[in-house]
Amino acid sequence: MSSKTLLFPIIDHKAEMKIEEELLALLKENKKTNLFQTLSYVLKELAGNANKANLKRIHYKLKGLNITDLQDYEKGMSDFKDAINEHYEKYFQNAEALGFYVKIGIDFQDHIAVISVFNNVPILRAEMLRIQEKFLSARKYASIEEVFTNVLDTSEGAGFGFLLMILMLKKAGVGENAIKVFSEQEGTRIEIRLPVDILESPEEEIISSMMVSEIEKIPQFPSHILALEKALSNPNADFKDLAPIIQKDPSLIADLLRTANSVMYALPKKVSSIEEAVKFIGFHGIRNLVMTYSAQKLLISRYKLDIVKEIMEHSAEVSFYAQEIARIYKLKEYYDELYMGGILHDLGKIIAQSIRPDIYRNISRICEEKSIPLNILESMTNGYNHSLIGARLAEKWNFPPSIVSMIKYHHVPLQSEEGNFKKNAVIYIANMIAHCRTGQCNFSEINYESLQFLDIHYQADFEKLYNNLTTLFQKQKN
Fold first, then answer.
1. Cα–Cα 20 to 30 A to 414, which of 32, 133, 365, 431?
2. CATH class of 2-200
3. In terms of C-beta density within 10 A (0-12 exposed, 13-18 middle, 19 or more buried), how is residue 302 classed?
4. pLDDT tens string 198-217
């Protein structure tokens, strides 16, 4: 048994990082780090709602409105969100001065994880009704796909995240009766009792049969590519073993030379033959290039070019950032693997987006509107998690275990197998930088432990790395 209690005057990014830090420490102690994504989302959602409830009281006080009066309540809510966004520092100072706080409890009791969040204001009837509405809505839907199909209004703001939390727990086998709301004299407490064993569902159950069938239909690499990969894996092989095989595929030769002469390798001189490329890059580097080339070629031949092109352009950007991070932080031993992991990390997205574009359109819309991480929403679908789909395909193609791991855990590096965290964290950070550049995420959404691995503790540190890498990327792109 182990527990932790945290107290904050306000829930900001610094508080969220502390919550993540303490949660992860407890999960490591109990050997349950695989629960980090679920419990982190639950804690942030509950803490965020408690924080809003406190800030709401400050808002009504500042405006001279009576929060218990129905007309005043509606009037105050009309500009509450805008006021918080525009004057957050003012509200933060008031929260401290007026003694508001949010108290978080995390407690492991045998096979039960107890999450409790308390804020020191009594819950209003309107707020309780809002929570009850979310429970009623959740009963209508068996999955997030049904929410999409029924065109639920996600613009309603407060409450949608709570609904997603209920559906997430429901999918994991945790019923709504595990969630209790207590109205106490000193304030409001929400408690969730989570059976840990139920949350640990095997991943095989969450890849849909449609996706499994599609993966089975995707062909293996051509025989000459398999022969080349085998030769490149032989530590005793030399170039004369490779030449007859490579010559069977002129487009492969052109692609290898183009990549070898790119800024990625920064060779001392331009190479004009595969033999020269092997001398500079080595068998291991050539092997990764061959496997990447073959994967891209097969996917382009099977799926719509615009889908493959869009995802591969993003992947090339991630690969560039990953290798630059390896250079900056002296992780040269991972250089070739990070190239391949970056290029192939979204393999599964090409498949899922091609087979179920309807689901992905809705997922993308909600991610953008609500700033909810993609992997959270995907985990709530019935088997359309692109990381798991991509890892399954990579295993079929006999990719090295480290590459499979990068694909599988590029959104959740904390769940990586022992020995793979560093590489997976680099891909994760590179991916987040690429999404930040296009406005799809911000610093507050990045996992703190992955940042700490790169000695990034403050937003200014991240922005320095971000500006450095994105500037380099734009230069090489132009």
1. 365
2. alpha beta
3. middle
4. 666 554 447 888 889 999 99
